[in-house]
Amino acid sequence: MFDFDFHNPTKILFGRGRETEIGKELQAAGIGKVLFLYGRDSIKKSGLWDRIVASLQQNNIAWVEHAGVVSNPVISHTRLGVDLAKKERVDAVLAVGGGSVLDEGKAIAVGALSDDDVWDYFVGKEVVAALPVFAVLTLAATGSEMNGNAVVTNEETRQKYNIASIHVYPRVSILNPELTCTVPPNYSAYGAVDAVAHVIEGYFTRRGGTHLQDRLVEGIIKTVIETNNIIMKAPADYAARAEFMWAATLALNGLTTAGLDEYSFPNHMIEHALSAIYNIAHGAGLAIVIPAWMKWYSPRCPERFQRFSLEIFGLHGVEAGIDALENWFAAIGAPTRLSHVGIKEHDIDQIADNAFGLATQWGIAGIYPRKAIAEILRFAV
After folding, report:
1. Same domain, 56 and 25
2. At what angle do helices 185-205 and 266-278 cross, to 10 degrees?
C-alpha cells in the first residue's frame, strides 16, 4: 500500500424519487439561479423535467435552460452554455442526464468564471475556479457524478480531451436507479463496458498496489457483469439497476486507485481518438479497444492477466480471460472489432496520430508511440 490522500466532496442521494429533493439541496447551498442543462426531450416525455422544475419552483430556485447536449459533448455547444451562464449570471450548473451532460456541465462551470476560452482548460490551462455543479443522473456509466473529470470533443480539431480538477466535483449528485430503466439495451451495454474500463486501467497498468485494490476492482467487475446479464433480460429490474448504478459510480470515484503507485489510462487514450474522429459511443469504442490492448499488453505482466482470468471468470491462462471478456462484450451487444463500426484497417495510422496527441498530454507517449498504438489497433481488425 502506497501513501495517498483521499477526499471526495460529492454528496450522494441514492434511491427512488430522490430527484424531487434537488431544489431543497440547491436552496440549502445558497443557490438562487441555475443553468439547467440536459440532452434530448426524453426527460420531458418521461416526466423527469416536470419533477425537476416542480422542485425548483417549490424552493424558489430560478433557472435558465440549455438543452441539446449530445453523446460525446462538443466544445461549440459548451461555449454556448458558457455564454448563457455568464449572460444570465447563474449561481450554479444543474446537469440532468448521463455522463455527457455532466461533463459538459462541468466544462461550462469552469468557463463561466473565466475570461479565457474554455477549450484552453482542456489543453493544459489549470482550472482554478468553477461554478458549483449539481447533478441528477439518468444513465450509469461514466462515474462523472462523483469525480472531478470531464471530457469534451473539439469538433474542429477532432480532439477529445479532458479536464481533471477538484473544483468540478459535483456538490450533490442524485442517483435514482428507476431513471435508468428506460435506457436502451445498447447504451446499457456501453455503460457496462465503460465501468469495466475504468477499473481495469489501474488494475493492469499499476506499478504496485495491494490485494485490497485488486479485490475492489474484481468485485466491481463481477457485479457489473452479473447485473448487466440481468438487465439485458429484464430492463426494469430495480435491484439490478441499483447495484449496477452504484458499481459504476464506485468504478471512478478514486476509491479503487487510492494506494496504488503509478498507473495510466491507455484504453481511454486510444478510444478518445475513435470517438473524436468517428463520433461513436464511448463504450462502444472501449469494447473494441480493450481486448486489443489486452492482447498487446499482456506479455508485460502475465501474472496480472492470469489473476484476472481466474478471479473474474474462473479460468486459467492469460488468453482465456481476455477471450471471455471479449465474448461477454459481444454477448451484450457491444462491437469488438473496428469493422463492426465501419472503420477500415487503412484508417489505423490516422487514429494512431490522433491518439498520440492525447498520449503526449497524459505523459504516456514513451510507452505508447504512434507505432505501438497502431499495433494495438491491428489486434482489433
Report:
1. yes
2. 140
What is the rounded CA–CA span in Å between residue 14 and residue 265?
28
User: Do 54 and 20 form a contact (C-beta atoms < 8 A)?
Assistant: yes
Residue 3 lies in a domain: no
Q: Specify the number of domains making up the chain.
A: 2
> In the chain, pLDDT over 70 holds for what percent of residues?
100
Residue 55 lies in a domain: yes
Closest CA to 175 of 372, 288, 18: 18
61 vs 174: CA distance, rounded Å: 17
User: Which residues constitute the domain of residue 106?
Assistant: 11-179
- The three three-digit cell numbers of residue 275, written as one number: 470517438
Task: Please report the sign of the dihedral spanned by the C-alpha atoms of residue 29, residue 34, residue 37, residue 41.
Answer: positive
Long-range contacts of 237-242 (CB under 8 A, 24+ apart): 238/16, 238/177, 238/178, 238/181, 241/140, 241/177, 241/178, 241/180, 241/181, 242/14, 242/177
Task: Please give the single-letter amino acid code of residue 32.
Answer: G
Q: What is the pLDDT of residue 124?
A: 94
Spatial distance between the Cα atoms of 73 and 63, rounded to a whole number of angstroms: 21
In this structure, are 245 and 329 located in the same domain?
yes
Q: How confident is the model at residue 239 (pLDDT cuts 50, 70, 90)?
A: very high
CATH code: domain of residue 206: 1.20.1090.10
User: Which pLDDT tens digit goes with each residue over 244-260?
Assistant: 999 999 999 999 999 99
The pLDDT tens digits of the residues spanning 143-186 come to 999 999 999 999 999 999 999 999 999 999 999 999 999 999 99
What's the distance, CA 174 to chain centroid? 16
